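Reading a protein record of the kind used here takes only a little practice. These numbers are not coordinates but entries in a learned vocabulary of local backbone shapes. Here is one such record, which you should read through line by line.
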Amino acid sequence: MTETRTLVLIPARMAATRLPGKPMLDIGGLPMIVHVLRRAEAAKIGRVAVATDTPEIAATVTAHGGEAIMTRPDHPSGSDRVFEALGKLDPDGRVETIINLQGDFPTIRPDNIRAVLEPLADSVVDIATLAAEIHTEEEASNPNVVKAVGSPVAGQRLRALYFTRATAPHGNGPRYHHIGLYAYRRKALQRFVALPPSPLEQQEKLEQLRALEAGMRIDIMIVKTVPRGVDTPADLETARRILAGEKQTG
């Protein structure tokens, strides 16, 4: 993957109900969206841009030296926002691989962002994502923790069979916490956003099931750590603690 062929897009909007104004919340003196931008830039895998419908977010990103692209406010998902941004930023179709990095992952490691590209070296893979092994029963039974169920392919890679909020798979053996970071081949993203929501996607409230139900192949790289998504005030405090600790040790 050459640098010019990979585009990292960070969808960000202000409409989060549980944590209003989420992308602009302060963590250690910087807005959360800027932390995510810095992590993506540190991965050094290609051009990075924030896709948003909010002028305030765009202005903050550009004030901190980043690139922002304005998108429509009516997108049903981050994937749709990313696809619009791709068309605006790369109308000639030169970008081959698009990484969709959520704007509420301020603690994600740059090496984990790089790791999501690895499965796409296999030409049969349409979409790649990440997961980490679950080590506690609380995590295994928590419906807010999405479980990735897959069949081992090679090394630290699984072929995704299913994603669920239930505790799965049953019985002894590893369970995996899905991390919502995706790398798409351009044609796969184009196909994905054109598909209607699927039955299992609507039942589980998990967008990636649309791709599986359409017969698309998703492979999963297993990484050691789960970045803390920020959805609640408690998550925000956790992220502040983690990043303050990194600053002290760094």
